[in-house]
Specification:
By secondary structure, the protein is an all-alpha fold. It has one domain. About 75% of the residues lie in helices and about 5% in strands. The chain contains 15 helices and two strands. A two-stranded antiparallel ribbon has the order 1-2. Helix 1 crosses helix 12, helix 3 crosses helix 9 and helix 7 packs antiparallel against helix 9. It is globular, with a radius of gyration of 20 Å.
């Protein structure tokens, strides 16, 4: 059968879980290859290709919009309920992680500076300060961005109730495009607090919301494989060309990147019944925990691997395995904590 069939309604979507599982894997591999792997031991084409892993962050934002709105369509909630049911799922693991990170051995940073960094994470004002936005981990900018989008979620729900679907999507794309242009013209895109502000990713969050609505209101969706192939090829190809061209073109390449990447992953889902699906569906169960701990775990994995071998591939393999093991252990701790606090830790219905 040359069709991908997605069953609609309110349930946990394995397709979206698979997307998240692949997304976090490519993010981890990107950081592994571009930050930690010895540059002389890896082909430049692979280093360049690994940059596609950055699109994984866009997929996470799309999936967040999808899961949040799917739950909202089934049972609308007020702000207080939303904070307890959704915000805590993001904030509590993040809080535990930054406290553990703070207590880990560190070098070259004064204790007073470390304390200020810790406070900026706990009270979330890090999102307003360039010096703090990525402290405790280059990946942690994402937490600030997703919390900003969470604060916009309920107003976006009200906006959707008052506007047609196409208008809703156009508003999101226009707002994000305007932000891209301003960032490029002013050069502020180079600063993380501006280049990663929620408006940068608003369109894909709102696209995720609309995807949830379409599936929620339909019995099933049929997607021909040829369409996935076309979107994957054109999207990824255009993304590469726009990235190489640079300038204003690069500012807009998130659109083809997300569409092409997502189509390619859905193709993998369609053909990977026996190996790929089980692997990445399992990865999704610890995807947020892996995201939080992977930079620290890879760094420590490399530290110990360098004592044991000179082979860069074996070092990378050991570091990756260490990050997965650390993510699993951390996920068990978080699940226990959530259970004690009476917070549902199951993924949003996605």
């Amino acid at each position: 059968m040359r069709i991908l069939i997605i069953e609609g309604g309110y349930h946990r979507y394995k397709e979206v879980s698979f997307l998240r599982g692949v997304a976090i894997t490519t993010v981890v591999l990107m950081h592994l290859i571009q930050v930690y792997w010895n540059g002389g031991d890896i082909p430049m084409w692979l280093r360049f290709a690994s940059s596609l892993g950055g699109t994984g962050g866009h997929v996470f934002i799309f999936c967040s919009g999808f899961g949040l709105y799917l739950s909202y369509l089934r049972q609308p909630i007020n702000f207080g309920q939303f904070i307890r049911k959704r915000f805590l799922k993001i904030y509590l693991p993040f809080l535990v992680f930054v406290l553990v990170h703070y207590k880990l051995p560190h070098w070259g940073v004064a204790e007073a500076v470390r304390l200020r960094q810790l406070l900026s994470n706990i009270f979330l004002y890090k999102m307003f300060y360039e010096e703090y936005i990525c402290c405790f981990g280059l990946q942690l900018w994402f937490v600030s961005t997703i919390i900003e989008l969470y604060l916009l979620f309920l107003p976006l729900c009200k906006l959707r109730e008052k506007t047609p679907a196409t208008v809703f999507l156009c508003i999101g794309l226009i707002v994000s495009a305007a932000w891209w242009i301003v960032m490029h013209l002013t050069g502020l895109e180079a600063k993380r607090i501006w280049g990663s502000f929620c408006l940068q990713y608003l369109w894909e969050f709102m696209l995720g919301m609309m995807a949830a609505e379409v599936l929620f209101r339909h019995e099933r969706i049929h997607i021909p494989i040829w369409k996935l192939l076309l979107v994957a090829g054109c999207g990824l190809g255009l993304q590469g060309l726009m990235a190489v061209k640079g300038g204003m073109a690069a500012a807009f390449n998130d659109v083809p990147a997300l569409l092409g990447y997502s189509a390619a992953v859905l193709l993998l889902y369609r053909i990977g019944h026996y190996i790929l699906r089980p692997v990445f569906l399992w990865v999704d169960t610890i995807s947020y925990e892996w995201f939080l701990v992977h930079v620290d775990a890879i760094m420590w994995g490399y530290f110990f691997a360098r004592q044991a071998t000179e082979n860069e591939f074996l070092r990378a393999l050991a570091a990756t395995a260490n990050s997965l093991a650390g993510a699993w252990v951390f996920s068990q701790v978080i699940r226990l904590l959530m259970k004690l606090l009476g917070v549902d830790r199951r993924p949003a219905n996605s």
